[in-house]
Design a protein that fits this description.
By secondary structure, the chain is mostly beta strands. It contains 1 helix and 33 strands.
């Protein structure tokens, strides 16, 4: 549902499961036929009636319950729920209802919550109704949302189960379930993203049983890469576009009228109610982190420079991947695809153990299975490569102490200065790096006996005056050579 309150919010709706009714036996039929019809009707009813809960997808051990309300008390738990939007608004989308705080619109009895819409005038609106929002008590990034509900039936009724950002803003918005009361067997599932002036969305629908005839379970799994919608434990839709990354709170409401459902008519029976059995929100546990070294292979024989590739994913999002060699941390990466450059010539010949550690956005970590490789290198070349800064070419070379320093004066009018360095080595140059005032600025990987590296030094915001530029080069054996420094004066 496209929901935009005065200060830009949005809604979504929940889904229910239909419960059929067995047919009565007719005394003027044979006992056999009557019993047969009754059993068929009961079977159909059971087939259409939801279980107590559908539960999160996958293994139960993958999930931890973070928020729930079973509505087993005598009144709405106001420590969990507000009865207005996070903005304070009490209506939206040109709707006809005014959400009130009254217990008459939020009835808790017999283990369920009833959000009740009535025909009565309040604050210039022709109807009153109920809404609950967890924005003051609970918000979460990623997880699984589930509610078991019975939907109302009637034109102009618009029940919803959805999430909005905390703190407020719009978009994003995830509509877990929306329904139009004059389409009791159809529910809508939508994800909004983009900006308020350029709303983008993925939206689809599912046609099933009469969701006003009984209780049904509506669920939504939200991960860092996708949103998946479920009805009665069965996946009905999935999207990977515009997946939100912020904390979001939970809303359930029963709207009346508005830009989408239209106004109630003479067929609409009021009061009407959205009946909610429970609401549960889960979060993935650490077992949902996946980590595996995909290259090199187990028991591979390696030499020289190799790439270590890691497959990493996490339902909370991957924060970083660490690479350990023989239980020692050697490198970290935060951007997929996760690949590490490893110079085995710095390692002794023989067996070594590689392991990846994946950490998710919640601070949970999981280690990959160990991969054992055999390092087999010939005797290393001990000659370091030569590296020379070949430009800027203006300036002169003068003697200073025991080293030669090249001076150049550059006007700081351009945003970038191009610095060129040439590296040579008989064992192949593998990397050339640039340093500015002894701080690492950038590097270039290569695989050649002679390599010319070009660097663009961004001088915007750099202090005017003297600056020292130098480069180093590393060959395939791990030997490193350092250039004669270049001193630039920026004016």
């Amino acid at each position: 549902m496209y929901f935009r309150p005065i200060d830009s919010e949005h809604t979504c709706r929940g889904i229910l499961k239909a419960r059929g009714r067995p047919r009565s036996m007719k005394t003027d039929r044979t006992v056999f036929l009557s019993i047969t019809l009754l059993l068929m009707s009961i079977f159909l009813s059971l087939a259409l009636t939801s279980t107590t809960s559908a539960a999160p997808p996958g293994n139960a051990s993958d999930w931890t319950l973070k928020f729930s309300d079973e509505f087993d008390g005598a009144s709405l738990d106001l420590a969990k729920w507000e009865t207005v939007y996070i903005s304070g608004d009490r209506t939206n989308n040109d709707e006809l209802e005014w959400y009130v705080d009254d217990a008459d619109q939020h009835v808790v009895s017999d283990g369920t919550l009833k959000l009740i819409a009535k025909k009565e005038s309040v604050s210039g609106h022709s109807y009153t109704s109920g809404l609950i929002s967890s924005h003051a008590s609970f918000s979460q990034t990623y997880g699984y949302w589930e509610s078991r509900m019975r939907l109302p039936k009637g034109k102009g009724l618009w029940p919803a189960f959805w999430t909005l950002p905390t703190p407020q803003g719009w978009p994003p918005e995830i509509d877990i379930m929306e329904n139009l009361g004059n389409q009791p067997n159809k529910v809508y599932m939508t994800n909004h993203w983009g900006t308020e002036s350029n709303d983008q969305q993925y939206s689809t629908s599912y046609t099933g049983p009469d969701f006003s005839a009984g209780f049904h379970v509506f669920g939504m799994e939200w991960s860092s890469s996708s949103i998946t919608w479920y009805v009665d434990g069965v996946q009905r839709a999935r999207s990977t576009s515009g997946v939100p990354t912020c904390e979001m709170h939970t809303i359930l409401n029963l709207a009346v009228g508005g830009s989408w459902p239209g106004s109630p008519d003479s067929s609409t029976v009021l009061p009407a109610q959205l009946e909610i059995d429970y609401i549960r929100v889960y979060k993935r546990s650490t077992s949902a982190i996946r980590a595996a070294i995909t290259a090199p292979a187990e028991r591979a024989t390696v030499s020289g420079n190799i790439s270590v590739n890691v497959s990493a994913s996490a339902d909370l999002g991957v924060a970083k991947v660490d690479l350990n060699v023989d239980d020692l941390l050697v490198a970290s990466d935060t951007i997929a695809p996760y690949s590490f450059y490893l110079n085995t010539k710095t390692m002794s010949n023989g067996n070594h153990t590689l392991q990846a550690i994946v950490t998710d956005a919640g601070g949970n970590s999981k280690a990959s299975a160990d991969v054992t490789v055999t390092v087999s290198n010939v005797a290393a070349d001990s000659t370091a490569p030569t590296v020379t800064i070949t430009s800027p070419s203006n300036g002169s070379t003068v003697s200073s102490s025991s080293r030669s320093i090249q001076y150049a004066r550059i006007a700081a009018t351009s945003r970038y200065i191009t610095i060129t360095a040439t590296a040579k080595d008989n064992d192949r140059v593998k990397q050339v790096r640039l340093f500015v005032d002894d701080n690492f600025y950038g590097g270039a990987n290569c695989n050649a006996s002679t390599y010319s590296a070009r660097f663009s030094w961004n001088i915007s915001g750099v202090t005017k005056g003297w600056h020292t530029i130098s480069c180093d080069a590393t060959d395939a054996s791990g030997n490193t050579g350092v250039s004669t420094p270049l001193v630039l004066y920026l004016r």
